[in-house]
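Incident review: delayed structure delivery

Summary: a single-chain prediction request sat in the queue longer than the usual turnaround. Root cause was a stuck worker, restarted by the on-call engineer. No data loss occurred. The affected request and its eventual output are reproduced below so the record is complete for anyone auditing the incident later.

Affected input:
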Amino acid sequence: MSTGAKWFGRVVWLGIIFNLCFAIPAIFAPDTVLAGLDLPPAASMLWLQNVGMLLLTLCAFYSPSAVAPGKFPTHTKLVVLSRWIAAAFWFILLRQSAPAEVVRPLLLTDLGLGIVLLLLLNSALQPEDRVSLHGVFSAIVEFFAWLKSCWRSPFVKAVVAIVLVVGALAGYGLWYYLLRAEPDFEGANAEEHFKHAPIGLSTESRLPYYIYQVLPTMFPDKMPRAGGWASFGFVFELGQDIPVGFSLRRIGYPALEANCSLCHTGQYRTSPADAPKVILGAPAHTIDLQAFQQFLYACAGDPNFTAANVVKAIKQVHQLGWFEGLVYQYMIIPVTKHGLLEQQMANSWEASRPIQGPGRVDTFNPTKFNVFHMPDDGTIGTVDLPQIWNQRPRESLYLHWDGNNNNLQERNYAAAMAVGATPQSVIPASFKEVTDFLLDLHPPAFPFPIDQAKAARGKTLYDSKCASCHAFGSPQTGQVTAIDAIGTDRHRLDSFTVALVDKFHTFETPPFKFDAYRKTNGYSNTPLDGVWARAPYLHNGSVPTLWDLLLPVEQRPTVFYSGYDVYDPKNVGFISSGPDAEREGFRFQVDIPGNSNMGHTFGTDLKDDEKWDLIEYMKTL
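Output delivered after worker restart:
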């Protein structure tokens, strides 16, 4: 064997060793590899092991050229070509904004080995098998000559013409039903834009509209109760089949995606017979997002959720064209099912946490585990959904429940990213229109009579007891009170970690850039504008009314029902007990981790008549 062949073989052996260093851990310890590469666990486990097996196969393919490259010239040339193909693949991924810290080392490895192997190739081969520019040029000429001879055949021409026509028609159909983008929602006014315009979520975070329409009739047994989608607490307006908080987009096929108003639109009724009244910017205290998620996952995992069954159900509602039906049966429905099951795996960590219930969501754990792929730390981040009106006077305040950020744009983009927006999918112009609308959106006035004399006495109490932390303009408003002083449930505080702050600070893909995040040791003193519409209270929604909040901790309700929308104007909050609340609400227990109603004992030492005066004034905020 020549010296060149020996060195060529050694480099191939080096490549085999590199492959084995990845392949063996990928097969036998995939969780360790995923953690090292900062990739999501469950959804990638099977594919990672599959990659490991393919690399082992590739190692076997490389072996003859490592042992005796000169004996297998064609095989040896393919080994070199495979490295260049791999390098080109990594380069394309890098250009498509794939994680550079993962892709760049793979690109450099394959490119480096490809260059060295190419330089050593001819010295490893026999003279008659060596590659020359003349030989490459001759091969190209021969190939085109063969094509020319084939083209003389009428049969070949007919086949090519048919293939081109069929391909063009199929390509147009696929573009029309999968990629053709119609103009997005253009609301008649800023309120409609807030309720139904898209902010730009990724394709994986959309639900095909036709599938949305048929799921309640296909799987009624999986709904929490009768009432269709409204049973999840969505806010519907008269005559609308799409709830507030969803945008209907048409990118190839109609699909729904969530926007900001989904979590930040509330509703109330003055009595059980009253029609619901919508409150824009208020906490969505009736919506059970976790139950909605679980319903979608249960449908996707049901044996009856097949492409044929779903298409059959859709045809009961819509006239599907022949080609459109094929696209739904073989592409849209299977991809939707796969995507939902992938989401279920990605959110499997929720099974080890207490049920969130309506009006609440785990804010930062999805970002930790699904966006930044951090290991599951067992923390509970469940909080009450906040209001988002009056953002202009809040622009420099430290918000989120723990006061971890004082940059309005960062907070908004982080919330969008948590529900599926990416730097590539987000629509900055639409996002800005929503943001601008919220700057000067004011909370509605208290919709019941107010005793002005009691309110006047209550204002004096408010100014002395509450304003220093909760009034706009006060130095302490929008700042953080230490957990030892406020004494409320600390689970949400502990779920936002220093490691997550570091992850945010390294994320710089325009327009997403997060520089203002910080780790705190307490909860923010939030302004109390529109406080009447923000029940239940405390950061985790563990106290149903303002009256309950002013009671000593041991007298506060330990069990109540959240998510019911009939209002209690005396105690200031939503009715949380009784048969109607029990039938429509969620049983909230304060002894469950993350649900504690401890702390914030300010004002609990007031006399009862003083408390009622204070509550009467707070109705006016």
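Verification: The chain is about 50% helix and 10% strand.
Action items: add queue-age alerting; document worker restart procedure.
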